[in-house]
Structure formats: C-alpha cells, structure tokens
Design goal:
The protein is an alpha/beta fold. It has a single domain, classed as NagB/RpiA/CoA transferase-like (Rossmann fold, 3-Layer(aba) Sandwich), CATH 3.40.50. It is built from eight helices and ten strands. The strands form two sheets. It has a six-stranded parallel sheet with strand order 1-10-7-4-2-3. Strands 8-5-6-9 form a four-stranded mixed sheet, with helices on both faces. A hairpin with a 4-residue loop joins strand 5 and strand 6. The model has no long low-confidence stretch (mean pLDDT 96).
C-alpha cells in the first residue's frame, strides 16, 4: 500500500461515517485553508489551547496563526517553551494537560474509525486519552487505511522512518516509538468532544 497517496472520496466518506457512528464530530475539509478557518470558528476567545509537535498543524498555518496572537486564546505551548529552567518546564508541561482544547493529528486513521498515535515522550497522550475536554484532530487524507492492522504497518514502516530522518536533520538524534496509542472510541459519560477533520490534501507524515 502506498501510504503517501490521498484516499479516494469513497474511502473518505466511509471513514467519516465510521467516525460519526462512534460519536465524533467528523467533517471533511476541502483544503488546509478551510481546516484552519474551521479551527478559528470552533475555539472561543477565552480558551486555553495546547498542541503537540505536529507537521500537520504547521502546514495548515495554525502554528503561525497561534504565534501571531490576536485570537484571545491562552497558548500553553508557548508558556512551556518560554520557560528556560528545565525542571519548571517539565512541570508546566504536566499542567498543560488540563488545557481546554488540544490540537494535533494522528499517524493512521482506519476506515473503521480507529486511530493510531505514536509518541516518543508521551506528553500529548493524556490530552487525547482523558484530560482535555475538547480535541481537534486534523488529518491529511493520505493517512486513511483500510483497518487497524494496516494502520500499525503504516506507523512502523512509513511514519517512524520519516520522523527519524526529520529528527536527525533537525536535532542530530534518532526518534523512538516509545508509546503507541490506539483510539477506538470515547466514553460519552466523560463529556468530552472530539472534532475530527479529514483534509483532502497530503498533510504531515
């Protein structure tokens, strides 16, 4: 399977239906610009926001928009990275898991609605699993695969090597897939909301 090819319209529609059946707010964005505009509409001006390391968020223009200010959001990621003391930075990152909104992506999205997210440190996983009340996941349509097994193959054989190359170029160090999360659904009693946007473009890995 070519993991860089954008999924067909039929595959995207099938995936949206599966996500919706799981209770997610699932939508299709025709372009990265449309995805960014939808994010602007979703997040209220007084909210705290946190994001993980995400090529996708950079490619849709979200990170630039966040950095410029004027949106009224409290940028917890900026607060973490602005702290020079390593120990204090770790504590701020721990506190950030209580953000009102968390934004990120996934490494594979199955047509069944199952999602795969891998992490080196695991810092973004609490948001996804439990702590943040509102989650926005922006997913390039090339990340859609038929099932969870193919999603795991995509992660190991395609995503990890690309991320390793990026890490070596940027930081002269290798990556490590230390923690892998499979999201199959959400307990409605938690009162959390997942907004999942499939963008009909190639975004991220």
């Amino acid at each position: 399977m070519d993991y860089s090819t954008i999924a067909s319209d039929a595959s995207i529609v099938k995936t949206i239906a599966a996500l919706s059946a799981k209770g997610y707010d699932a939508s299709i964005a025709a372009s990265r610009a449309d995805a960014l505009e939808e994010i602007k509409k979703l997040i209220p001006a007084d909210a705290s926001v946190m994001n993980g390391s995400s090529a996708t968020l950079g490619e849709i223009g979200y990170l630039d928009y966040l950095a410029k200010g004027g949106h009224g959001w409290r940028d917890l990621h900026a607060e973490v990275t602005a702290e020079n003391d390593a120990a204090k930075r770790v504590e701020l990152r721990k506190q950030s898991v209580l953000s009102d909104w968390y934004l990120g992506s996934v490494h594979a999205l199955a047509e069944t609605g199952d999602m795969v997210v891998a992490s080196n440190s695991g810092s973004q996983l609490p948001h996804l699993v439990f702590t943040s009340k509102n989650i926005i996941l922006v997913i390039g349509a090339q990340k859609i695969v038929p099932d969870l097994a193919e999603g795991m193959k995509r992660l190991e054989s395609y995503v990890v090597p690309l991320e390793d190359a990026r890490m070596m170029q940027a930081y002269k160090t290798h990556t490590a897939n230390n923690k892998t999360l499979v999201i199959r659904g959400e307990n409605p009693s938690l009162g959390r909301k997942f907004h999942i946007m499939i963008v009909k473009e190639k975004l991220g890995f």
